[in-house]
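Reply to dn_fold:

You asked what the input looked like. This is it:
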Amino acid sequence: MSPRAVVCHKEWTLQPDREPDAAPITYAMQCGVCDESSPTSTDFAEPQGWVFEHGGRNPSHHTYREIITRPWRAWWRP
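and this is what came back:
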C-alpha cells in the first residue's frame, strides 16, 4: 500500500481576545534614548507617570515609545 496525503484547506479568523479569561491588556513606556523601560501595568497612567520621573532624572531624554501588549485569538472558520 502506498502512502497517501489528505489536504484540508481552512480559513482562519483572528481578533483581539475579549473572552473573560483572556490575558489583560498591558502598557509600558520605553525611553527612545537609552531604551530603559517602565514597569508594565494594566493602567496606562502608571507608565506615563514613569516618563516624567525618567525625564526628570535625564533632562535630555525627550523621546519615548508606548508598548501595548494585547491578547489575540485565532481559530478556524467553520
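Helices lie at 45-57.
Hope that clears it up.
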